[in-house]
Amino acid sequence: MGAPDAALLSKQPSNMKKNILKILLPVLLLAVFLTGFALGRDSWQLPSEKNLQNTELSKPPGADFSLFWDVWNLIEAKFVNRDELNRQKMIYGAISGLVNSLSDPYSVFLTPDESANFKDELEGHFEGIGVEIGVQAGVLTVIAPLEGTPAKQAGLQAGDQILEVDGQATNDLSLDEAVAKIKGPKGTEVNLTILKKDQTETRQVKIVRDVIDVPVLKLEMNNNYAYVRLYDFTANINSEFKKVASQILQSDAGGIILDLRDNPGGYLERAVDLAGWFLPS
Question: What domains can you pick out in the chain, each with its CATH number?
Answer without folding.
Answer: 18-109 (no CATH), 129-213 (2.30.42.10), 217-275 (no CATH)
